[in-house]
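5-oxoprolinase subunit PxpB, Rasiella rasia. Tokens?
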Amino acid sequence: MKAPTIFISTPHSLFLQWDGAISEETERTILQTTMVIQSHFVEDIIEVVPSYKELAIYLKPTVHAVAFQARLKAVLLKSALTNSNTTRYLITVPVCYDKAYGTDIQAVANYHSCSVTTVIERHSAALYRVSFLGFLPGFPYLTGLPTHLHTPRKKTPRPRIDAGSVGIGGEQTGIYPQNSPGGWNIIGKSPLQFFDVSHKLPSLVQAGDLVKFSPIKLDRFQQIQAEIAAGSYSLQKRVYD
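Tokens:
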């Protein structure tokens, strides 16, 4: 694994930073580093928070960052000598792009001088990588949005966006896991539940996973909602090599 630069940010937290551009290789290195830290220092840490090129480590009040830094360097050096593989999953996410849910899809089409159908085709044809979760619990920042769908965020955020809404913000696409204010362009909605604290892993997708959007009609959206409520819906999820 590539070695990061380690900074002490507070007496009980550290900040790891990787050089270079945002890339899948860097994100996978950060994911592997996260897993190494979580497995070796479970008694020391409160939380590990990854992003595109950084990783924040929050320590328990009894653990001091200076002493922890030395232990961390030793573990990361040893881990760099091993081939650390992580399991990634491909999750197919059904999305209804109907204008009833895609409140900004026409605006996105207008911005790119194309049809709504073209927006749907472009958005659902791509394969996205979950770079990290942030902003809201379970909100996946997805890398891989085609350049001809890059759209500036709205100048005035909405006070409420429904859970399951799929949006475009700049060079990214993402899914709102819960009702929230937001400034992304909403182009559709998924009937799936993306964050549930009653589950062992509350987030439906994890950093490093792959996401493929599958267009569905309004009636299928409602049918999936009913299947989820009845406990009969089967999520399309498989290991991605």
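Residues 5-78 form a domain with the Gyrase A; domain 2 fold (CATH 3.30.1360.40).
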